[in-house]
Design a protein that fits this description.
The complex is a heterodimer of chains A (338) and B (276). Chain A is an alpha/beta fold. Chain A folds into three domains: 182 residues, no CATH class; 84 residues, no CATH class; 53 residues, no CATH class. Chain A has seven helices and 20 strands. In chain A, the strands form two sheets. In chain A, strands 1, 2, 5, 7, 9, 11, 13, 15, 17, 19 and 20 form an eleven-stranded mixed sheet that branches. Chain B is of the alpha/beta class and 276 residues long. Chain B is built from ten helices and twelve strands. The chains are: A alpha/beta (338), B alpha/beta (276). Chains A and B meet through helix 4 and helix 5 of A and helix 2, strand 7, helix 3 and strand 8 of B.
Amino acid sequence: MTKDQEAGRLCFSDETGLVSLRDGRIRTKDLPRGVRVHDEESVPKAIRDRFDVHPSETDTSPVTHYVMIDRDQGADRMLRIVRAWSKDKNRGRVAVHLAKGAQAEIRALATDEDGTLVDDTWDFFLEAESSLVFSSLIAYGGQSMARTRRRAHVEEKASFTLNTGALGEENAHQENTITLRGHKAAAFVRAVVFSAKDQETVMKTTLNHEAPATESLIEHYGVAADKSFLAFEAATRIAKGMKKSSARQKNRGVVLGRKARLDANPLLYIDEYDVEAAHGAAIGRIDEEELYYLMSRGLSEREAQTLIIQGFLAPLARLEHEEGIYKAIRDLVTERIG
Amino acid sequence: MADLRIENLHAEAEGHRILRGVDLVIEAGKTHAIMGPNGTGKSTLASVIMGHPRYKVTAGKITLDGEDVLAMSTDERARAGLFLAMQSPAEVPGVTNSDFIKAAMDARRVDEKNIPLFRFIKELDQAVAALKMREDLPHRYLNDGFSGGEKKRNEILQMRMLKPKIAILDEIDSGLDVDALKIVGDNVTAMKDGKLGLLLITHYQRLLDYISADKVSVMMQGRIVKTGDDSLMKQIDTEGYDWIKEELGIEDERVVPDDDERVFLEKCATKEAFEK
């Protein structure tokens, strides 16, 4: 166990496929075959043209770290990306580009120097038949404010999975915008947020179905404790002619504090008849029967509450598979339930 | 050796008087069965003993080895040695069985270190095998997506791991097919070590074919109206409850309002239906 892990910070214990982005510099270690990481002035024009992205959409941050994943990869297709922000290095952008048929999994951690105004942008470009599972865990300090934008462009038969966890103390605005551009493209978003004290957090996900037979799922899970405010905004748009598309949304939240507030706005904009769509929101306090059941086996009310909340946040499971992260998530939740 | 004593217990829920003077003793090393028609207060009694927040005790007392149970919170009752195998246990998505059971076992070891992981895993694996449950049970979320029968077996598995002094099994036979009933019966019988006090709540005599009872009581109108032995149980099995109502001059035995009555389809359904 490293010193950072002992101190309870978020750290990967496995350093294979590691990309460390600190103070605008890249450090890489044991990159899998077929993966290249380097700096670019901006997202390359060829990619912008291919994905029909206007430069203004990608050029708001000064630094672009560019991750290219080819189809020809080694057996280990895992990348671990660590981002650490400081007050004077607080803006950055990462563009991830998967070539046709490429498959990859990326796990990203982000921490900061407390009091930083973080401005973080991710652009994902998935060529046809590629597949990316991107899992991100953010825990910034209580004096920090963070704006995180993730934009994904998904081509034909490509699949994008976004797992994101926000367990820090910062005021945060996270915005995910995914566009399904090709036939049978798919996107699955699972966002987990824990807000406490007087935190304000907005988690917004927009999914645009711009091709037929596309599939999407948005899941937002959250806990609002103390006096915090948490808002889930989920919007799915299915354009006219995008037949046989399927869109689902789930928003689930637990309100712990009497003064805490959790809003959920699940929206569907559908301009086509031949589609399947469902959305819903379930926000409430911890189920009394669940609490009673756990207490009936000897767990104190606090222990039972902690276990239920940890379970509620279990959708972060992909990151839990990382040794060290699993414990860090649990410790964070236990500490923040207070 | 623990005795659970219930004296003149009255309790209500949302303004409805349900328990109306229950007197009952569950002795260490003995098995006491409570039978009775639907809505007579049997499950309410189990819930009140365990401290369910829905019920309010209005009179009477419950003691465990002389300690006032009603003064304890639900978790304190559990740590004092009480266990309730619930008729309809909650589903808790995200919490794995193993995390839950380990947390419950650790909570009981107030003055000791947590149970060593290796020992815990070994004990849990043995319990899973004994109850013929799926091998991945420890990693499955607590009761989440379980069939009715799996939930009941999971209750008995927890009982086996937590080793209570007094265990109350609330309609543990509902939702179980014959094979599963035998497995549950064998496991509970194996836990009878001369110290465990057992209270079985059931509608049917068939549970008592697998777990023998020393005493049988009948509950109506929120109290115990008759107590006997094996012969009382057999008479109920062949003649039902009407003769008791006639004998005691009871016209309406129910105390639980209709709206509150829970209906479990699997109680009457076929084996295939349980697995849905």
